[in-house]
Write a structure and sequence with these properties.
about 325 residues; alpha+beta; 7 strands; about 15% strand
């Protein structure tokens, strides 16, 4: 036991935090729950280091422990996006909030992507935290979700997955097939998940928004663009609906400022509304853009700024 603990001290475990956080986030859909799961993973790992036989890598062994922690945590619940709560809304709908625990929440890329990943691995890991992929994952039973992530995102073998999930290899392969079929039924397009945002498009969007030029902004939107604002249940579709909201009930966003960040493999911004003449700006929402080709396909504004902004290293106020 002493030799093992000397070889794998707490610093060695800590080096795997980002990789484990990303895995737990994919399983749970919440950065806070992912943090808790990683901490529990480290506790269990430290307690059982004497049973680590080094026949697999330390990271693979930790993934196995983290997966079991997530399965113990998740139960039968799943997180969703507002679009799954009901039909498309209108700008006149009542604004009903839902508990934050119902929604998939954004995560900073720096917290979920290991710094030592090579470019190809990093690209796969970034795609696997995109909101569209995260939402599709939530429709998989927890053990299918775990099997798919371990094999197709993290590159574990069927035998390693079988050992982690206490399944046979044929059962693992069957679970993977069912998981793939479910993802296909959700019409998850590989190109959409893999698409990288054009920096010029993102710059034009932010410029139009800060100038509050709705004519310029709507020209950048896909015809089926979706706008949502968790924890509100409402969601809107189409450039006309986005413009009507911005110029109507959302008119308080005029004069906002945007600070860039990165979330879920997509461009994101802290939005700050004007607090009044000479009073600076206050945190309003974390805006995450989804992009396909030369158009914005999704505008997701997460309004729980007191929890989210510190996690992303964003202030809660900006000076005038």
């Amino acid at each position: 036991m002493t030799d093992t603990r000397t070889a794998f001290d707490s610093a060695a475990l800590e080096r795997h935090r980002a990789a484990l956080t990303g895995h737990c986030y994919r399983m749970l859909g919440s950065p806070e729950e992912a943090d808790d799961a990683v901490q529990e993973t480290f506790v269990r790992a430290w307690r059982s280091l004497d049973r680590f036989e080094q026949r697999s890598s330390l990271r693979t062994w930790l993934y196995s422990i983290a997966t079991r922690v997530c399965l113990d945590t998740i139960g039968d619940r799943r997180r969703i996006r507002p679009m799954e709560l009901g039909p498309v809304g209108t700008v006149n709908d009542e604004l009903c909030t839902r508990p934050a625990a119902e929604f998939i929440e954004p995560i900073p890329e720096s917290a979920a992507l290991p710094s030592d990943a090579d470019p190809a691995e990093r690209a796969i890991l970034r795609q696997s935290i995109r909101l569209a992929f995260m939402a599709a994952l939530q429709h998989l039973p927890p053990r299918q979700r775990a099997a798919l992530l371990l094999m197709e995102v993290l590159g574990c073998s069927a035998a390693e997955v079988a050992q982690t999930l206490d399944m046979t290899v044929p059962a693992v392969n069957s679970a993977i097939q069912r998981a793939r079929a479910t993802l296909e039924s959700r019409q998850l397009e590989a190109d959409d998940v893999a698409a990288e945002a054009d920096p010029a498009l993102v710059h034009r969007y932010v410029d139009a928004f800060e100038r509050y030029d709705m004519d310029a902004l709507t020209k950048l939107l896909h015809q089926d663009v979706v706008m949502s604002m968790p924890p509100y249940a409402i969601w809107l579709r189409g450039p006309a609906a986005v413009s009507a909201w911005m110029l109507g009930r959302g008119i308080g966003c005029r004069g906002s400022r945007m600070l860039p960040t990165a979330a879920n493999g997509a461009p994101a911004f802290g939005q700050f509304r004007c607090s009044g003449p000479g009073k600076g700006f206050h945190a309003w929402g974390l805006v995450l853009l989804e992009v396909a080709g030369d158009r914005v396909t999704g505008i997701n504004t997460f309004l729980d700024t007191e929890r989210l902004f510190p996690r992303f290293g964003l202030p809660l106020r900006l000076p005038a």
